[in-house]
Specification:
single chain; 288 residues; alpha+beta; Uridine Diphospho-n-acetylenolpyruvylglucosamine Reductase, domain 2; Uridine Diphospho-n-acetylenolpyruvylglucosamine Reductase, domain 3; Enolase-like, domain 1; 3 domains; 5-stranded antiparallel sheet; 4-stranded antiparallel sheet; 12 helices; binds flavin-adenine dinucleotide
């Protein structure tokens, strides 16, 4: 299907993109386009209004790349999912992003889709949101007036991932003493989108779970934390068998929302799998 006509703008600097974004009426931003172009086609099919202007962020070098600075990993918004998968900069806890990225869709989508698009598209079948919550990442935005703000990932998704600013980058504090685990199940064998995803972080201290974050994406609401499961884990030692007991301490509302029996079962499989993974990894932190 052909898209309805629009004016495509291709600024070369962030400042120029912000100026256009502030000045043009009826405008959308484009990163990799994997979500946006489908969205514009859906709007056309429904007979709804489509934007007059699209600003591509593709030619803006300030929005690309992964680096480490001052104890933080910085991932710019236009970094593709494939670049995240292949990056040697993502070590320690940030290496969990390799696993999340590897599981996203197909190579063709990973080549085009960006971190920024994944986090800001307000589509719940995405995997970076739960991962960023567990990593305690901060999302950085610049407004059309040039003002910069940083928001914890958890807050962003609690507020339904709404923004009228340009998302520029994410920062993740480096931390060598935490263990991370990731689990996802796919929705359909035909189009690889997730049915659910989970990312768990813990800081093993003297054989106990501590500062645990359980970030859950049930793929029908925005990614959120299971504080009930976190509380249970934080009161316990890291030991084999704890994963079975943990299933009695879940915030069921998260897992039951619009879930089939299969999905509820897969959540329990995922939680056990992720906790077992953490138990295995916690040996690496046995000095603590
Ligand atoms: C076939 C298919 C399979 C998929 N499977 C998976 C999967 O398995 N796992 C998964 O996690 N995701 C999956 N996705 C979703 C995919 O990851 C998203 O489509 C992608 O991440 C969006 O990124 P993009 O760069 O293409 O964004 P775009 O499509 O360009 O933009 C998406 C939205 O975000 C906004 N936006 C983009 N960048 C910025 C920015 N810097 N600041 C402010 N707003 C911005 C745009 O305005 C637009 O509204 C799949 C998508 C498809 C089409």
């Amino acid at each position: 299907m052909l898209l309805k006509p629009f004016n495509l703008h291709t600024p070369k600097r962030l400042a120029a993109a912000l100026e256009l974004y502030g000045a043009l009426p009826d405008v959308r931003l484009q990163a990799g386009g994997t979500f946006l172009l489908n969205n514009l086609k859906t709007l056309k099919r429904k007979g709804a209004k489509t934007p007059q202007h699209v600003i591509s962020l593709f030619h803006i070098p300030e929005l690309k790349g992964i680096s480490r600075e001052g104890g933080h990993v910085i991932i710019k918004s236009m970094t593709t999912i494939d670049e995240i998968y292949n990056s040697s900069q993502l070590t320690g806890k940030s290496s969990i992003l390799h696993i999340a990225a590897k599981n996203i869709s197909s190579q063709l989508i990973r080549n085009m889709a960006t971190l920024g698009g994944n986090l800001t598209c307000r589509y719940t079948w995405t995997e970076m949101p739960a991962t960023m919550i567990a990593l305690e990442a901060r999302l950085h935005f610049t407004g059309t007036n040039g003002e910069e703000i940083a928001v914890p990932a958890q807050e962003f998704f609690k507020n339904a991932a709404k923004t009228d600013k340009v998302f520029t980058h994410v920062t993740i504090a480096e931390d060598a003493s935490v263990a991370m685990a990731y689990f996802r199940a796919k929705k359909s064998p035909y189009v690889d989108i997730p049915l659910l995803s989970l990312c768990i972080k813990t800081r093993p201290v003297q054989g106990r779970f501590s500062e645990t974050i359980v970030a859950v994406n049930n793929c029908v609401t925005f990614a959120q934390r299971d504080y009930v499961l976190e509380g249970f884990l934080n009161e316990n030692h890291i030991r084999p068998g704890i994963e079975e007991q943990a299933l009695a301490y879940l915030d069921e509302a998260i897992y039951d929302t619009r879930s089939s029996d299969y999905k509820k079962h897969m959540f329990r499989v995922g939680i056990k799998h992720a906790i077992r993974d953490l138990i295995g990894k916690s040996h690496d932190y046995s000095r603590n």
